[in-house]
Every structure is written in C-alpha cells, then in structure tokens.
Amino acid sequence: MSDTKVKFPSRSIPGQLLCPVYAPTEPKVTKYTAGPGTKLIHYDANNLDVITSTRIGHVTVSPVDVEGKDDNDMILMQVSVTSDEKNDKTNSHSSKLLPKEGDVVLCRVIRISLQRANVEIIGFQNEPMPIDGGVGTNGHSVVGVNGGSGGSTFSMSQSSSDLGETFRGIIRSQDVRATDRDRVKMVDAFKPGDIVKAQILSLGDGVNYYLTTARNDLGVVFAKSDNGAGSLMYAMDWQTMTAPVTGAVEKRKCAKPF
Amino acid sequence: MTDIVEDTIDIHPVSFAPEVLARISPELSLQRHLSLGFRPSLKGFEEFREVELNEDHLSRYGVEHKDNSIIGSNVLKCGKTFVVTTITGGIIEDSTIYKNEENELISLDDTKKTDLTNYTSVFPVVEVERGRAGACTDEEMTLSQKIYDSMLHSKLLPKSSLKIEPGIRITDDDGTMEIIYSDESKQHSAEENSFKTNRKWSYLLYAKIKVFSRTGPVFDLCWNSLMYALQSVKLPRAFIDERATDLKMTIRTRGRSATVKETYDILSDSSKQYPLNLNKENIAFASNYGTITLDSEAKLTEEADEEDIDMDAVETILLADLDTESEETSVNTTLSIISNDKGDLKHVSILGGDANISPDNLRKSILLAQQRAKDLKDKL
Amino acid sequence: MNVQDRRRILGPAGAKPLVFANAEAKEDKTVKEETQLNKNLSISLQRGIISNANGSSIVETSGISLLTSVYGPRSTRSMSFEPRATLNIILQSNKFDTSNLKEISNFLISVLQCCVCLEKYPKSGIDLFINFNIEDEDELVQYIPIMIMSCMIALMDADIEVSDIIGGLTIDHTAVCLGQNGDQLLGLWKDPSSDEQDALVLNETIAKCQEQYSSSRQQLIEFISNC
Fold first, then answer.
1. Is B215 left (phi over 0), alpha (psi -120 to 50) or beta?
2. Which of C61, C69, C68 is nearest to C32 (CA)?
3. Do A133 and C224 touch (CB under 8 A)?
4. Separation CA C68–CA C56 (nearest Å)
5. pLDDT tens-digit map of C46-73
6. CA–CA min distance C121, chain A (Å)
7. Which of B325, B326, B351 is most worth mutating to test chain A (most A CB atoms within 10 A of its CB)?
C-alpha cells in the first residue's frame, strides 16, 4: 500500500490539490475517494477528476474495506483532512458542525405529546455543539433577550422561537425503547427539561431530526424531580429514577449509567 | 446512597466533558466549580476581568485625521467581550427641547446646580452582536434605557456644556471665507452684533454602543466604555453662514435611516474644536455582582462525613463581575452598582432572586465597586 | 425618521446631525490611488476573536477595518428539507445606504457560493455578518477585496469546508473576484460611478488583477497556515 506514487502533503489548505481519483500504481490501480474535509472536483480542461482539500489540517489516507465485493482491479483508499488540534485554541471548535445520521447526541426535551417528544439538540456525546447556540447568542437570562420584540428579531437562517437557535428533533413513541414498542407512554419516558442521550435515525424533514433511544445506553441522563422544580435524580433501573434528597421516585426511560 | 455525587463518579463511566456539562446543566457545572473554590471562568469569587482600553482611534480627532462625523470613541475589551462606542453629534434648536429657556438662563447659578433640569444625557443605542438581524431585542432596549437614565441622574453632563456659541462665516469680496467667533476676536464686534439672532442651539450627543462577543451581562461594560468615550469627545465650533439660508446638502442621519435633504443653516467647523466639559467629579464606573447559595448536594466532597454538616447553615457567596453562560443563567440575585472612586454611589439596582443579600455582602460589593472604579479611572 | 422608533432612544425629532464644512477637501485623493497598489502590504489579519460566533476575523488596512463573524451552520426557518446549506451575508455599516449594501451582499453571496461546500451542510444556514468598523474609503467597491478576504478567514476559522481560497482585487473602480489560482473569474463588480470602459480595458484590468491575485492569496495562505 505504501507504493502509491501519489505523494500526499502532511498538511493541506483549502483548494489544495491532493491527488487524482485514479493513480496508476503497481500491481493494482488505486482509486481514491473523497472523505471528510475533501471534495471531488472535475477539471473540464483536461477532463480529470481530482480530490482537493477543503479545510486546514492534516491529510490522512486510509484503506476502505469493501465487504463482500472482491474488487480485483483496484485498491480503494479514502482521503480525508482533519482539523489541527492546534486550531482549537480560542474557540472550542469541534470538527463536527452538524449532527449526522448515526451520531449520538445530547438533547433537551421541550415538549411532550402522546405520540412524540420534541427535543432540541444541544451537544454531541462528548463534544459541545458549536458555540453560537449558547447564551452568548441566545441568552435566557433574567432580562430575557428574546421576548417582546422577539417575534421580529431573527437570524437570517432561523426563526426565533422558544427553542432558541438549536436544531430540533423528534423522538417518536415507537422509537423510545426496543421492546414492547406499542405500549410506550411518553409521559412515563420523558419529562420536559430532561437531558436525553439519543441517536440520530435520519435527517428528517426541514425542521426536525428523527431520534431514537431504543438502546440500553440511550435515554435520560439528567433529570430533575417534580418537572424540573426538584433536585437531581439518579437512575435506579432502566425505567425509574429517584432523588436521593427527597426520596421522590419518577418514571423515565433511563440510559444505562455504566 | 449517602454520598450521591461520589456514587455518580464511581459507577458512572458515562461522564461528560466540562464544556458539555456546562451546556446541558449549567447550574450543576457552576455549583461544582464553586464548591472547588473557583468559578467556571477560573476566576476567584471576587475577581474582575482585566479591562483593556483602546482609546479614540475611530473619531475624526483620533490618531489619524479622518473625515468622518464621529466626535469621540472608545474600544473597551474585557475578557473576551469587546465594546465599541462611537459618539456622534447633532444640533437642535433650543426652544424645541426646553420650553422656558429664557427663565432658566437668568436663574442659572450655583444653587441650581443640583437641579436635574440642568443636566442632560446622551442618546444611546446599544447593539449586542449575536448573529441576528432585525429589530432590537429586549436586552438592547433595557440597556439603552438604563444607560440613558443613569447618565441623566448621575449629573455628569451639564446642559451648559452643550450650548453652542455660533460664529459667523463671512465671504469677502474676493471669495475667501473667514469664520469669526465672538469670543475669539473683538474687532468684528460690530458685524457680530448685526448677525446676532435670537435663536439658540445646543449639541446633542448620540452614542452607538456595539457589543461583540458577548459572554455575560454587559451593562457595566457598555457604561464604562461610554464613560471613556465621553471623556474623549471634542465638540466642533459651529458657525452660521452669512447668507444663512437655503444651503442644500445631503446628510445622513444616525442609525439605519436613509439619506434626507435638509435646508441647513448651522455648520460645524472642521478645524476648530474644544473638549466636552463634563462634571468630572461625577464620572463613575459600573460593576456588577451576584450572590448564590451553595448547593450542598452538588458538592464534590472528598470525605463522606462532611454530609453531617448542619443543613440549615446555608452558605451564600458573593461573585463579582458575572461572566459565562452558567453564571448568567444560574445566578438570579444580582446587584448593579455605579460608583465613583470616592465611593459616591450613582446607581444601585438589586434584583432579588433566591439568594439573600446579606448586609455583609452588600457592604462588600459597595466597597468592591469603589475599588473597581478607582482602577478603571486610573486606566485613562 | 418619519416613523418614530419607540424601541430605540433616538433623541428629539427636530435634531439635525452635525455637518462639517469641508474646507480642504479631496486633495489627497490622488495620493490614495497610488497607495492602492501597495495596500496588500499593510493588511493586518486576526481571527477567532468573537467567542459567541463559530468563526470570526478582523481584516484591517489603512482606511478599512472589517469584523466578520460566522454563525452556523444552524437550523433554518425553512419548513421543507434543504439538501444544501443556505448562505447569507449581512453587511452592517453606518456610512453606506442599505440598498447599496444589499446589492454588494448579493454579489458576495454569489461569489462565495462558488467555494463554500454547501452540500456538506444539509438543512442548515450559514450566516456571515460583516461589520464596518472603520470606513474611510468612499467607494464600496474598494471594500470588496477586504470583504472577501475577511469572509474566507472567518469561514476557515469556523472550520466550514471551502473548496478553494478565492480572492478579489480592485483596480480602477472595478472589483474582480478570482478563484483557482486566478484561472477562474468568479465575479466582476463595476462601480456605476466609474467611467465607461470598453471591453479591451476591462480585459486589461482582469489581467492585471490576475497578476496581483497570487500575492494576496499567498498572504492569506501564510496567515492561515501559521495559526
């Protein structure tokens, strides 16, 4: 694999040519695919497909596993560019800007109905969301910054609502747990204000992502008793939580704490 | 289940990065930081952020000569937040703002100095940059109003220092123009008298305060920046043209408004100006404080027997210079103080929340406000 | 002015803004034109200064200081599924008319759309806010190269994927935006106030810009790869 004729730079900048799609290596031709941080560009002039970098960072080339298909003509490699750690000095940039299918995210429950729970996505599993969703832009302080004239105050991309500026999602009742899916009662699974760990099923429609908690490690991770007025509760089993101070016991679909 | 938090640490391999925790449960994040003796921003409880000033680079009287209409400016940097204040001027005919102008002029003496009607304020427009367009938010409106009111009541800006003593521009026969100010030359007094009008003008000051990179409450930053900006303001000399009629020119009004055409009869001299006269002893600086009750539950305790501590002994602590999302959302009891370096209070507002403000904490914050004002004053 | 704005404290309605009598006007105009060519040398760049935006930059020359902040990709107000991100640019200036700013912003959007990988950010919006902090140049066309530069830095600071580093140059009231090492002409802005030019002159201008493009691009690359 190391006999590729293409020599990759260790660092790249946007627009930098990384490699052609096909490289005539021995004994097999190598085919490169564009991974994260790169883009496939077609040059009309000499009818050539090339991969260019789209961000500042380190270039990595890794083999792609093609299951089942014995591609005997080509070696498949994926080229990607990952951001430097060094760049993270001022803002806590994450390379993840948008939730994608399959990502595990943290979200806050904002509305419950019989069929679904509406949530806002506030972070990835162990990375915060981009900063512009926080108080700095959003501000739910004592002096509410988005009340009153809030209706006419909008970012160009986003209508101002009670939800702030985060992406929204839906957990449908049949996606709450894996077993006995038809008998899920949403009020026994989530309460508004709970922090839920969930996985993204699909990008959904224009407004909502579709999320699921049908896994042992997914579900409520932070909850307060008495609809948020009480104290923090901790999971006892997968469907009960208790507040150690008051002894209150409430029903939730809990995430496995281990 | 005696020690909850320790349990979560021991058997919770599911842990969250500090930034994530701050996002999903700001209150818990704050309480845990406080129980360790510092704040999420890693400041001490009564520590202020460092303030950097970049004074008056934007105005026409600044370092480089510029051809704009800004007559005073300040850029204040505090932590990550920075505030850009630009001051522009306007002219208004006096009769339209103070009705009994004549009477007041006569009775303007030192005894009247305390009267509020002898003072005025700037007209502030605060804009907090947060990636939005459209109408101003409640926060911006509240800030502007609070600045306007506090400025008026701090008696910093006497109306007398905004009065215009207009000169007269005379065009000689050979086309050269000359501007004559009555207080500068006596020789033209005859002509001067012939142009004497009954109309009186005053300057108005407009402040545009833009806040970038907001991380917490910004009132004190806006106020302080405005204080510095006001001290850099220079007012141009104004004059009336001899043929003081029908000067058509295109002017731009402040803010986002359009260009309008006006008949103008009073102009500003682009070469002569004088510093704005402020009531120096009333220059005061703002600072803010919050108190919060320590939540014994959220404590990261090291010894299990600390649980035996009397639960009635609620511990409230005073935080100075609130910053960061978690403090802003969780600290509900806030104090805002405008004080000068001698400890004269110009404004105190206390927003009650869940935590008590003990007389002790009140005393401490007033003392801190005075200290802070002294520090900030010395920055100039 | 006609409609009273009750949300802002604007002061008495009868007031008139200060008008400065311009005594010694416009004599340094020619000097300005000459320094134009050397301007690239005196550009100062900064990035990552705004903590509540995803990315930000300050680009300063002798007469211009622009602060650009990038918000997003964040959710949009659109109800239908958008497979690509939408790009918005909002210009905030005290000096120029809203209508002119709007036109420039549309021009910038169309230029930047050529390089931002919008397809990587489905159902989201990317908002760029350009604040004019110092605006001593009188023609908006002079701002275009600086605006493009600050947008590029801010986008890269936000870690938003861009397929190319594009740049712009202004010569004789004509702004030329180039990409792909100068091979690709992405946009052309001719100031309406400038004199009529025939195609030949325009071609010359573009050629001149292409020559200078690489140096301004190199400067940007040096900046972004050094921090």
1. alpha
2. C61
3. no
4. 5
5. 988 888 888 899 999 888 899 999 987 8
6. 7
7. B325
The answer to whether the predicted template modeling score (pTM) of the entire model surpasses 0.80 is yes
Parse chain B into domains and list their residue ranges. Answer: 18-36+285-378, 51-166+198-242+272-278
Which chains touch A (3+ CB pairs under 8 A)?
B, C
Which amino acid is present at B77? K
Mean pLDDT of the A166-188 span: 90
For B100-115, the pLDDT digits (tens) are 444 444 444 445 556 7
Task: Examine the pLDDT at A226 and tell me if it is beyond 50.
Answer: yes
Q: Flag if B131 and C22 touch (Cβ within 8 Å).
A: no
Nearest to A149 among B8, B130, B138 (CB): B138
All residue ranges of chain B with pLDDT < 70 are 1-14, 55-56, 63-66, 95-114, 184-198, 242-265, 297-314
Matching residue, tokens 């320590």? B294
Integer Cα distance of B258 and B147 in angstroms? 26
Q: Which residues of C touch A134 (CB under 8 A)?
A: 52
pLDDT at B253: 53
Task: Decide: A168 and A99 in contact? Cβ < 8 Å.
Answer: no
Residues of A in contact with B332 (CB under 8 A): 142
Global ipTM:
0.86
Specify the CATH superfamily of domain B51-166+198-242+272-278.
Answer: GHMP Kinase, N-terminal domain (3.30.230.70)
- Determine whether the interchain pair C74/A155 forms a contact, defined as Cβ–Cβ distance below 8 Å: yes
Phi, psi of C135 (to 5 degrees): -135, 75
Residues of chain B with C-beta less than 8 angstroms from the C-beta of C49: 80, 82, 212-213
Nearest to A234 among B4, B135, B328 (CB): B4
C98/B258 touch (CB, cutoff 8 Å), yes or no? yes
CA dist B47 and B371 (Å) reads 12
B23 vs A: CB within 8 A: yes
